[in-house]
Amino acid sequence: MSLFDKNISKEKRESLELAEASRESEWKYPSFALKLFHGIVDWPLIHPFPQQSVQDKQLGDEYLAKLEKFLKENLDPDEVDRTGIIPQKVYQGLGALKAFAIKIPKEYGGLGFSQVNYNRIIHLVASYCGSTAVLLSAHQSIGVPQPLKLFGTEEQKKKFLPRFADGTISAFALTEPDAGSDPRNMSTTATPVEDGKYFLISGEKLWCTNGLVAGVLVVMAVTPPKIVHGKEQKQITAFIVETGTPGIEIVHRCQFMGLHGIQNGLIRFKNVKVPRENIILGEGEGLKLALMTLNTGRLTLPAASTGIAKWCLNVARQWSAKRKQWGAPIGEHESIALKLGYIASHTFAMDAMSWLTSAMADDKKKDIRLEAALAKYFCTEHSWTIIDETMQIRGGSGYETSSSLRARGADYWPVERVMRDVRINLIIEGTSEIMHLFIAREALDPHLSRSKVLLSSHTSAAEKLKAFMAAGAYYSLWYPKLWLPSLRSYPVAEPLKAYLSYVDESSRRLARDVFHQMLRYQKKLEAKQSVLNRIVDIGTDLFAICAACAYADHLMKNGQSNAAELAELFCRQAHERIETNFRDESSFVDRLGVRVAKKVLKNEFSWLETDIIT
Ligand SMILES: Cc1cc2nc3c(=O)[nH]c(=O)nc-3n(C[C@H](O)[C@H](O)[C@H](O)COP(=O)(O)OP(=O)(O)OC[C@H]3O[C@@H](n4cnc5c(N)ncnc54)[C@H](O)[C@@H]3O)c2cc1C
Questions:
Q1: Pocket test residue of 217, 428, 590 for ligand 1, highest count of atoms within 8 A of CB
Q2: Which of the residues 5, 9, 242, 605 has an alpha carbon 20 to 30 A from that of 121?
Q3: 339-369 tens-digit pLDDT
Q4: So what's the pLDDT on residue 3?
């Protein structure tokens, strides 16, 4: 956005240019969430709530039953946590169940499952063992199978996909010690040799999940630059790399707060020779590939988070009823009751969002980049609050390790381990802060596309005039409509209608607000993260209300009449957050916070950091 801002630093401009060049610019299919940010609730896009076909559901049910039995008989998550090892028999058993080829089409030896069934599997595994869920998802959501399925050539598919059906594991290597959220800092290079028939990859990749046990990796590396508009532009290319290739060294296995069983490490590449045929999507298209892979890959974390939230609901319910203090079960004390209400209502909303977005991915007729990001952000953030509240409900027993609980014969629920395992979800596959920026960029895209020509230095005065007239004509029709009262009645069960009318009104209020903020800050809006964050948070909760209402309506029609109560509680809680965000959009506290942060960075409050051991 602030590409047009002349005051930004050269580094920041280059980072933004690279991100812009890598984003998918076209909106081929409609997006419910995009419209929501622009004052339109395109209800038929999500209602009736999509349902799995009987056949697809049966396939999933049968597989889940087999997998659950296998995991219970062969995998002890506490032992994985204690030893840092997922036993070999589990890798073998999962391989035999084709759990490393869940979404790979049958013609290449895979199970050929839908996104919904894949996410149901990850949901189940995540509720039992975080490390095993990450083993499966790092391989299939971002590892080699997904980009190959989406962008691979027939030769590449034939060569690599059948291996995953035989139990080969893959990994995704993007991050480097100096390149986390910002890939511009990437320094791993792929230098063409032998007339460009091969590339020599050199550099280091950090935190590569499964990297230590993988047979193949997707490696992002910098290839020779291109000249775009007279300027050199960094090119990032994705390569399939076999881990047996000479020059690959595992330097270090990383250890983390949680997920002790994942085989994650620092990998060094020294002149690793890779043939040109191993490029996926094309030279210079690596970042685009990563972003497009993540559009679907990101749907796994909402499903995993929902599995964990349901596990928390189960623990919190049992303990709140069983544990008595001050003459009553703790669940009857209002403070704990409110926590239980929050856990139940938000688990319900997460469930709605996860299955709605997964079904959208299977449908393939909707653009899901925004919906997936909203679901990832919403579900990972709330699953963290949910595990935190579950720990509070469990009291001291929540903080005690599972082996200690077991040793003294106490009720065994490994809340402490699950909490350690869950925290990373707010960081991987796009941190919450980067999700805010991504969602804001995509949500503002229709406005930015209209203003691009006006603000660009590459367009002529005549083109600018034409764009100005077109924008004027569009906004003179669009903007007044945002002020009209809504008379729409949604075709849902009675208690839900009012919440959808609220969404209708708030969506138009949000669209007006976005427009006003754009006029107010213009080129500087990108830097106003406090404003963008509130816009994104409002959009997230509006989307969640829509998903929850569509889901509740579906469940009610299928006999689950009290689903309305969960939806109602969720809608009211989300409503409170939305109103707070609208009210505080130009918050003095935010401005004060930023001012204090500047002083913190200049070390002006060093007097506060005394009498501590550092
Ligand atoms: C357990 C684990 C597994 C992982 N698995 C993989 C993997 O398989 N493959 C892989 O390639 N990588 C993997 N990663 C890396 C992960 O994707 C990165 O940690 C993540 O992208 C964030 O990068 P970073 O940690 O360097 O944080 P940084 O980018 O340094 O960010 C630090 C903080 O600053 C914030 N921040 C950064 N830029 C901005 C901005 N412009 N505006 C506002 N806030 C900002 C971030 O949100 C964050 O809070 C893994 C990491 C871990 C810990």
A1: 428
A2: 242
A3: 999 999 999 999 999 999 999 999 999 999 9
A4: 52
Q: Which pTM does this prediction carry?
A: 0.96
- Residue 215: Cβ within 10 Å count: 19
pLDDT value of position 240: 98
Cα–Cα distance, 482 to 476 (Å, whole number): 11
Name the residue among 288, 394, 328 with its Cα closest to residue 24.
288
Task: Please check whether residues 290 and 187 belong to one and the same domain.
Answer: yes
Residue with CA closest to ligand 1 atom 41: 434
Q: Please give the mean pLDDT across all residues of the chain.
A: 94
Regarding whether 419 and 331 lie in a shared domain, the answer is yes
Distance (angstroms) between ligand 1 centre and the Cα of 424 equals: 10
CA dihedral 561→567→569→573, nearest 10 degrees, is 180
Pocket of ligand 1 (CB under 6 A): 138, 171-175, 180-181, 207-209, 256, 259, 264, 424, 427-428, 431, 433-434, 437
Whether 604 is in a domain gets the answer no
Assess whether 408 and 510 both reside in one domain: no
Domain boundary among 133, 165, 197: 165
| pLDDT interval class at 62 (50, 70, 90) | very high
* Cα angle: 178, vertex 181, 185; to 5 degrees: 40
- The protein residue whose alpha carbon is closest to atom 51 in ligand 1 is 207
For residues 445 and 363, membership in a common domain is answered with: no
Residue 7 banded pLDDT, cuts 50, 70, 90 = low
Same domain, yes or no, for 557 and 581? yes
Provide the residue count of the chain.
Answer: 614
